[in-house]
Amino acid sequence: MDRLAEEASPWVRLAMVDDVLNLARANSLWPLTFGLACCAIEMMAAGASRYDLDRFGVGLFRPSPRQADLMILAGTISRKMAPVIRTLWDQMPGPKWAIAMGGCTISGGPFRYPGEYAIAEGAEKFMPIDVHVPGCPPRPEALIAGILKLQDKIKRGRRLERAG
Amino acid sequence: MSAPAELARAVEQLGATVPAPFEHPFAGAVEVRWIAPGRLPDACRAARDAGYFFESLTCVDRLAGQGAFELIYTFNRFESSASSRVAWRVWSPAGESVPTVSTVYGAADWNEREVWELYGVRFAGHPNLTWLLLPEGTEWRPLLKSFTAPPASIYDDSQSVVPDDQPAHS
């Protein structure tokens, strides 16, 4: 079978069912309608006509975590909000992915300083993140780049181990 | 007589006094008066009856670590375009509570919760004095002058909530 696959590979692609599924999953992401702070404005811009996330199959923002498989964390996470976000994440059915958009969700960003008392220092303190999009806030192009990166990762069927 | 001056005269009937020049002048208000904590609801009622809305409540930790606070209530009105803000300053001695003004101005409710959670000033008669911005159960008061950093435990990564999930899917 391996030999056959090798010989046929220039003409025939013997995809595993998973590969096909992953292709479908990657090109039909359903993000959660969910904004935390100023990054959400850029996320909305990315979803609107000018940048048009629909081109990548990501345009249908769902109002319920039960219908979403992508969480775009867009904005500052206060310590009070963190458990709420974790609950939303737990309510999303798998397979699911998360994008940390902006400095705050990556590390606390500008709110990280000695004596800081109200802001969670990065979303990874309380949930897993697949792709980080740096910026303060990132432009819509950067978010799109992050989504393309995530789609790449989903198509490969595993977590990205290195960039590129 | 201008409306702020009239109001100031009215609260002077309640024992309000003009701050002395050396007492940290409060800029931005045309009339500033010291109000005794016990007369605060009456002074606020006077402001409400004169057509003023509640603008803000802020707190100053003047004597670091002593537990005494200065509260500044500001009021304004829509009727005049010229500066018309008035401010009531209240000195809250250590260990004493201040009467709530949320019964006079509903908008003061959340302001008082914020001052309580960030400074620890207690407002007697407040309907729901609980945490507004900080997580429920927070015990430290981050805006006190004596505050340096929250307890180490909330920074402890070993307590962080979540383990990495299984790979995105198998």
- Overall geometric form of chain B: globular
How many β-strand stretches of chain B? 6
User: What's the structural domain tally of chain B?
Assistant: 1
The number of helical elements of chain B comes to 3
Major sheet details of chain A? 3 strands, parallel
Largest interface: A-B, 27 and 22 residues
| Total beta strands of chain A | 3
The fold-level CATH name of chain B is: Beta Polymerase, domain 2
CATH fold type of chain A: Rossmann fold
Spatial arrangement of strands, main beta sheet of chain B: 1-4-3-2
The tally of structural domains of chain A comes to: 1
Overview of the structural elements:
The complex is a heterodimer of chains A (164) and B (170). Chain A has helices at residues 2-8, 17-26, 39-47, 82-91, 103-107, 140-156, and strands at residues 70-74, 97-101, 131-133. By secondary structure, chain A is mainly α. Chain A has one domain (17-155): Rossmann fold, CATH 3.40.50.12280. In chain A, strands 1-2-3 form a three-stranded parallel sheet. The radius of gyration of chain A is 18 Å and the shape is elongated. Chain B has one domain (3-159): 2-Layer Sandwich (Beta Polymerase, domain 2). Chain B is built from three helices and six strands; from the N terminus they run H-E-H-E-E-E-E-H-E. Chain B has helices spanning 3-12, 40-49, 108-119, and strands at residues 31-35, 53-60, 69-76, 86-92, 98-99, 123-124. The termini of chain B are far apart. Chains A and B meet through helix 4 of A and loops of B.
Strand and helix layout:
The complex is a heterodimer of chains A (164) and B (170).
Chain A: H1 2-8, H2 17-26, H3 39-47, E1 70-74, H4 82-91, E2 97-101, H5 103-107, E3 131-133, H6 140-156
Parallel strand pairs in A: 1-2, 2-3
Helix pairs in contact in A: 2-6, 3-6
Chain B: H1 3-12, E1 31-35, H2 40-49, E2 53-60, E3 69-76, E4 86-92, E5 98-99, H3 108-119, E6 123-124
Parallel strand pairs in B: 1-4, 5-6
Antiparallel strand pairs in B: 2-3, 3-4
